[in-house]
Design brief:
This protein starts with 7 loop residues before the first helix and ends in a 5-residue tail after the last helix. By secondary structure, it is mostly helical. It is flat and about 165 Å long. The C terminus is likely disordered.
Length: 1102
């Protein structure tokens, strides 16, 4: 049905087409329901359509089916929360009307539906502020159901459903977790109600919820219905789980409860309620609230146990009294005295006997035997059965069965004689099934090595000794004589038949299986010197038997593990005995061990899913119990460990060998440590995880692993023919089958990781390894260093910025490892602010050593203003035209510069990371870049100023005006000042009036022409802002004005027109016209000697 869903419309139409309430309709609706439960997607459409038809309808099969389907859809189906909420919204009107239905069953189902509908609609209405009518309807339903719960005349089933609804209302109308990040969407409560909700008032609902809880507690103490009490107690388990604030109230109510209100109820009912309370109290004591209420709960449980024991004793006494009364009542009374004249009347006597029997039968028929104790009833039954003989009892049984038209009881079969007596010559003997040797016990005597005893058995002497104790159980009067009987001669068998016979015997006879592994190897030790041909034949037969045994073991290796271990131990011991006596002995142990191991490996490769069971440790246990493990087996374990689907077997076995076989510890650990450098990352990390669990503290493994890991990074050093000081000689470098003698440069990151991943993993537990990393880092090739910087990220993050060893290494980093220390500092500050300790450490390091300015970038935002002004030029000096330094400096500017007041708060809050008073203003930063241009370098300063101009939200026109005004007042002007002025007027045209009227005039008064570099910039600026600069240029002395127009002839015509239009003092105008004559062929600036600032001005925008 689940695989082939029915068409719901066709199935429903078919059900409606048959007679209503018929068996056929019930079957069709049941089939449709089963299909809808497996495929519930059509349920909302069906319920929405059918639910309207049941309101006001009479009791019918279809009505019950629709309500049950609606209950399933809302309460128990796998439909999404949104679909169930929509279905609840569409059906709440019908459910409200059905609360008044005359059918008890209908009302029960409706209340159960509303128990889920109420929280669904509550969740919806908390966010929907327009459905006031729906909330009112839901409140009316709640009021009606609460009346059911309070009314003493309500049907018990309806009342139980109503109590469950009340508990859901209490859960919803009490406050849950207020933190929205921790709220459970499946736990709606008044904490979800907005404060300004128009019609859902959280405070009123909370007060109502507490009153309902109080009424339920009152019902717990006053109700006389055990079912009601059990329902209340069982529903509180969810309440204490989701409302921890109410646990104290629940515990107090339960610990104070006594069964006073249940007086007169059966003892079993009272005991049921007591058990429910006890279970809930024990549950609370074992939960997260047990520590707070443990003492109170334990005391209540002790009191309850005494109360229950007392009630049990009273009930037993009551039953005993009832049983005694019944026994006394049924005891025969003496018959009445019969007059002598009536004694001879047999009719009268029979009538009186019949009357007494009738009275006794009537009494027994009216007697309630359930009041008697079970033991007494059992004794009475047995006594009555013993009063009849077996034939009489069988006759009574047959008569009773005939009266009831029951088939008669078949006669009992006579007891069968034993098999040895019952068997006749014609009876076939059933062959016994072969016994699985793994299901038989092999005791210590059978697996013990006892050559004397075995030799005795082989020679036949023991048979004679045992004849005395064999019981002779043969009758003397047998009809035949066996004294002259002789066994027939053995049948001649071919070689193939002999092998088949041995194979069959080995696989079916348990005794032979149990002795094969012990007798056959030892048999060879007892043979005398025979011919080589006979020995060869004997060895061949032995090998054939061993092969059979090997195949048998490998058919089910985990189950036959004990047999395999015993066999291998026997082979090893036999090899030692024979090798001592015969130097030419051919050992069997290693060859057959390799046979078992290779077969096991083949079995693993042949598994259907390609993977062994991760819980199967049979192979590991097998190798652990062997007397000797050859190197070939360790090589096989190495191979298993590098295969993804078999590595569990390899690593588990190697780990156990390291831990439990001291003689193999060094070799097994060497394999594991070799695997820590395997090229495959999965294998390598599995090996690292295996060995690092023994570090630190697990001696001697700890020392062995540390000595290995301590040299792991040396292969990453830059090896050269001429060894530098501090490098290890080649013989001390770590050598594994997976590492090359040297790294091909430039190194690949994956190759470097092979060398250092174990060292990094051990450094987490033993920070002293960090010393070796930093010391060796300076001797590595640049490509290896770059790879180390990327690979060390996870290690540094796991250690944390408060790790003392890392901080010490950063402060005392060896020469050549400064870039690694910088990488550590960058990792510490990538996603958070540096600590004060880290800032102080870097400041001290900068003051003591000549370190890269990049050390300052992560911490400069945490410095005070004085330090920022001190160190910022050093940071800016890293600019070299590349994008990476440029982005770094831009981020520094963003973090140390405050935004102007007009846009304060519009930028992201994570840019300024220090106190506002410690930040630089944009003007202070720009002035600093000009004042420190020599320290920074002209090219780097130009690039830094360009970064400022690109930050248009910070360096606006009014900021630049302040900068220019502040710099122009300085006694010594920076070389880049006029370049910045030109860039400012090019970027912001609104600055042209300020520059032309104020700035140029100030520069003229400062005799700017006396500084050749600045004079060249002045001329360029005048050209850029012309003709706005003409008024200021006329303030120049005639000699400087003539020089200016000589260098910029294009300004002559404009200046001439400007002077002519002004028409001021004629003599002065004539002097200007003399300078701005018509001769345009004067030497240009190209012929003037170049100044050092030309290269700087060449980049100035025109």
């Amino acid at each position: 049905m689940a695989g082939n869903p029915l068409d719901p419309l066709q199935a429903l139409s078919a059900a409606l087409a048959v007679p209503a309430d018929s068996k056929e309709q019930a079957e069709l609706l049941a089939a449709l329901r089963e299909s809808l439960e497996a495929h519930p997607s059509p349920i909302p459409i069906l319920c929405t359509t059918l639910i309207r038809t049941v309101s006001g309808a009479g009791e019918s099969l279809l009505k019950r089916w629709v309500l049950d389907l609606l209950h399933f859809a809302i309460c128990r189906s796998s439909l999404s929360l949104e679909v169930r909420s929509q279905l609840a919204t569409q059906s709440v009107d019908t459910l409200a009307s059905l609360l008044n239905d005359p059918s008890v069953r209908t009302v029960k189902v409706v209340i159960q539906c509303l128990t889920t509908v109420y929280p669904l609609l509550f969740r919806t209405l908390c966010s929907n502020r327009t459905q006031r009518q729906q909330w009112d309807l839901l409140s009316q339903c709640k009021t009606r159901i609460l009346d059911f719960a309070r009314s003493p005349t309500t049907n018990t089933g309806v009342k139980l459903s109503a109590i469950k609804f009340v508990q859901k209302v209490i859960l919803l109308q009490t406050r849950g977790i207020s933190d929205p990040r921790l709220q459970n969407k499946n736990d709606p409560n008044i904490a979800n109600v907005p404060v300004d909700h128009p019609f859902i008032v959280a405070s009123a609902l909370e007060a109502e919820g507490m009153k309902l809880l109080e009424s339920v507690i009152t019902m717990l103490y006053t109700s006389q219905d055990p079912d009601i009490l059990t329902a209340i107690v069982n529903s509180w388990s969810i309440l204490i789980k989701q409302r921890s604030s109410l646990v104290h109230l629940v515990v107090s109510s339960l610990t104070s409860w006594t069964p006073v209100s249940l007086a007169g109820q059966p003892a079993s009912a009272i005991k049921s309620v007591e058990k429910s309370i006890r279970i809930l109290l024990v549950h609370i004591s074992r939960g997260p609230h047990g520590s707070a209420f443990g003492a109170q709960i334990n005391e209540a449980l002790a009191v309850q146990a005494q109360r229950m024991e007392r009630a049990s004793a009273e009930e037993k006494a009551r039953k005993a009294a009832v049983a005694a009364a019944a026994t006394e009542a049924t005891r025969k009374r003496p018959p009445p005295a019969i007059p002598p004249e009536d004694q001879t009347d047999p009719k009268r006597l029979k009538a009186e006997v019949d009357s007494a029997a009738a009275n006794s039968a009537a009494f027994l028929a009216a007697f309630d035997f359930t009041t008697l104790p079970i033991g007494l009833v059992t004794d009475l039954i047995v006594a009555n059965l013993q009063a009849f003989s077996e034939p009489a009892l069988m006759n009574l049984v047959q008569s009773y069965r005939q009266s009831r038209s029951l088939p008669p009881v078949p006669p009992a079969k006579p007891p069968q004689p034993p098999d040895s007596v019952a068997r006749t010559e014609g009876t076939p003997i059933v062959k016994e099934e072969p016994v699985d040797p793994l299901k038989m016990d092999i005791d210590e005597e059978e697996v013990e090595y006892e050559p004397d005893k075995l030799n005795l058995e082989l020679s036949g002497e023991e048979a004679t000794a045992n004849e005395e104790i064999i019981p002779v159980d043969i009758p003397d009067d047998l009809p035949f004589d066996l004294s002259d009987f002789k066994l027939p001669s053995p049948k001649d068998l071919s070689t193939d038949e002999r092998i088949a016979l041995m194979r069959g015997a080995t696989t079916s006879n348990m005794g032979w299986r149990r002795r094969t592994y012990s007798i056959r190897p030892r048999l060879a030790a007892e043979l005398s010197d025979a011919a080589d041909k006979q020995l060869t034949a004997l060895y061949s037969r032995q090998d054939a038997l061993r092969q059979i045994l090997c195949e048998y073991i490998m058919d089910d290796f985990p189950a036959r593990l004990r047999l395999a271990i015993t066999w291998m131990n026997e082979e090893w011991y036999n090899d030692r005995i024979r090798s001592a006596a015969d130097p030419n002995w051919r050992p069997n142990y290693e060859s057959w061990l390799n046979q078992l191991v290779s077969t096991y490996q083949t079995t693993l490769e042949g598994k259907v899913d390609g993977k062994p069971d991760s819980k199967d440790k049979a192979f590991s246990r097998f190798l652990l119990d062997l007397p000797d493990v050859p190197s070939d087996v360790l090589d096989m374990l190495r191979e298993l460990s590098v295969e993804a689907d078999k590595m569990h077997v390899g690593f588990t076995t190697l780990r156990d060998l390291v831990l439990e076989r001291p003689s193999l510890r060094a070799e097994a650990l060497r394999v594991l440590l070799d695997l820590t450098t395997h090229p495959d990352s999965v294998t390598r990390r599995a090996a690292i995880n295996t060995v690092r669990r023994w570090v630190p503290g697990a001696e001697p493994l700890d020392s062995m692993i540390q000595s290995k890991g301590g040299n792991g990074q040396t292969n990453g050093e830059a090896e050269d023919d001429n060894m530098e000081d501090g490098q290890l000689p080649p013989e001390e470098l770590i050598q594994t089958p997976y590492l090359s003698d040297d790294i091909q440069l430039p190194a690949e990151k994956s190759h470097v990781l092979q060398h250092v991943e174990l060292l990094f993993a051990l450094s987490v537990k033993i920070p002293e390894f960090l010393d070796e990393i930093f010391v060796s880092y300076g001797q590595m090739d640049v490509s290896v260093q770059e790879a180390i910087q990327g690979l060390i990220t996870a290690l540094v993050k796991s250690l944390g910025s408060n790790n003392g060893k890392l901080l010490t290494l950063m402060r005392t980093c060896p020469p050549g490892s400064e870039s690694l220390a910088l990488r550590v500092l960058t990792i510490f500050t990538e996603h958070g602010r540096p600590s004060a300790q880290l800032v102080a450490l870097v400041k001290g390091l900068i003051s003591e050593r000549d370190l890269d300015a990049r050390f300052l970038i992560p911490i400069i935002a945490e410095m005070d203003k004085g330090d920022i002004l001190r160190y910022l030029p050093r940071v800016v000096s890293i600019l070299n035209g590349q994008p990476e330094p440029k982005n770094l400096v831009r981020s520094v500017f963003s973090s140390v510069v405050t935004t102007p007041p007009q846009t304060f708060g519009s930028v992201t809050s994570n840019l300024p990371r220090v106190r506002q008073s410690e930040l630089l203003t944009p003007a202070e930063l720009m002035v600093l870049l000009h004042e420190a241009e020599k320290e920074i370098g002209l090219k780097s300063a130009i690039e830094a100023i360009g970064i400022c101009f690109s930050m248009t939200d910070v360096f606006r026109s009014e900021i630049l005006a302040v900068v220019m005004q502040q710099i122009v007042d300085e006694p010594v002007l920076p070389v880049l000042f006029l370049r910045t002025v030109i860039q400012a007027v090019t970027t912001y045209k609104s600055l042209v009036p300020f520059v032309s009227t104020t700035l140029l005039s100030r520069l003229i008064t400062k005799k700017i022409w006396q500084n050749p570099h600045l004079w060249e910039g002045f001329i360029r600026c005048a050209k850029v802002i012309a003709p706005a600069s003409f008024g200021a240029l006329l303030q120049l002395p005639k000699e400087q004005l003539r020089e200016l127009v000589d260098k910029q002839p294009s300004l002559k015509s404009g200046l001439r027109d400007y002077v002519t239009k002004k028409a001021g003092n004629k003599a002065r105008v004539a002097g200007f016209l003399d300078i701005f004559g018509d001769d345009d062929n004067m030497p240009s600036s190209a012929s003037s000697p170049a100044t050092p600032v030309d290269a700087v001005m060449a980049a100035t925008p025109a």
